[in-house]
């Protein structure tokens, strides 16, 4: 057997020159699309708080855009999911579960790192950690726009991933805050040993559990998730109907 064939392949099935070609293509795409208007506006918005620009987006307009984007993302994703086979839907469910666990781990890990490496109050560390255990619809839309500009296809169940991966940050934050309350957190969010701490006049006996109906309702039926999941369900139903008769339903 000749172990030194000139056309030997990469262990992943790529020739030895292909990884370099892929890296070169990735760099070329990055440089080429770095100054696309969509990305430039994203960077501009990112600089607003950094440069302390006294700008406040109108709340009513912001809420209107959020409602439109969440429903449109869910609707479009739901219609595409109607074309998936049962096996592909099972794969999507498995990936959603992995995404849920991953975001929960990221949220908890971020909280631990912040507590050990910064002087932040524990409640603030939990808040920031929970933020990192969630995802961003704005970033998601930006990524979809970039993929569209590059004519790159993506799996249709990505909106489901967005919705599912929004939940862990909320759960981790509520769980860790409930632990802080049991350890004596005062009404202002200060813990024993932190500046400004005032002992509660009465310890909150049997503080609200993370599994209480009220907490679960706030987590799973908050407006953002409701509109996103609602859009997915509506899109899926309309997509199934369109498979039978394309003239029945028009997409978003």
What does this structure look like?
The chain is mainly alpha-helical. It has a domain at 91-190 and 207-246. Helix content is 64%, strand content 0%. The protein contains 10 helices and no strands. The chain has helices at 18-33, 37-50, 59-81, 86-117, 122-132, 137-149, 158-164, 167-182, 213-220, 223-244. Helix 3 runs parallel beside helix 10 and helix 5 (122-132) packs antiparallel against helix 8. The longest helix is centred in the middle third of the chain and has 32 residues, at 86-117.
Q: What are its keywords?
A:
252 residues, mainly alpha, 0% strand, globular, disordered N terminus
Oligomer: single chain
Strand fraction equals: under 5%
Radius of gyration: 23 Å
Shape: globular
Order of helices and strands: HHHHHHHHHH
The profile of the biggest β sheet is: none
| Count of helical regions | 10
Low-pLDDT stretches are 1-8
Q: Give helix % range.
A: 55-70%
Measured distance between first and last alpha carbons: 59 Å
Which structural class do the helices and strands define? mainly alpha
**Integer average pLDDT:** 80
The total count of strands amounts to 0
């Amino acid at each position: 057997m000749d172990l030194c064939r000139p056309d030997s392949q990469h262990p992943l099935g790529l020739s030895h020159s292909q990884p370099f070609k892929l890296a070169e293509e990735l760099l070329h795409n990055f440089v080429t699309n770095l100054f696309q208007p969509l990305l430039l506006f994203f960077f501009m918005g990112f600089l607003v708080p950094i440069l302390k620009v006294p700008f406040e987006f109108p709340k009513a307009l912001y809420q209107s855009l959020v409602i439109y984007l969440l429903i449109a993302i869910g609707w479009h994703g739901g219609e595409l999911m109607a074309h998936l086979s049962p096996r592909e839907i099972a794969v999507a469910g498995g990936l959603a579960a992995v995404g849920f666990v991953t975001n929960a781990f990221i949220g908890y890990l971020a909280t631990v790192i912040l507590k050990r490496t910064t002087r932040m109050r524990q409640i603030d560390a939990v808040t920031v950690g929970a933020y990192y255990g969630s995802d961003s619809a704005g970033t998601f839309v930006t990524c979809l726009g970039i993929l569209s500009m590059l004519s790159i296809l993506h799996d249709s169940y990505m909106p489901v991933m967005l919705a599912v991966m929004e939940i862990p940050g909320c759960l981790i934050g509520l769980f860790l805050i409930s632990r802080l309350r049991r350890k004596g957190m005062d009404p202002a969010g200060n813990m024993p040993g932190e500046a400004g701490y005032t002992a509660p006049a009465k310890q909150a006996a049997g503080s609200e559990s993370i599994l209480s109906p009220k907490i679960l309702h706030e987590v799973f039926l908050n407006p953002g998730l409701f509109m996103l999941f609602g859009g997915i369900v509506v899109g899926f139903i309309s997509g199934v109907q369109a498979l039978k008769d394309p003239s029945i339903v028009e997409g978003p």
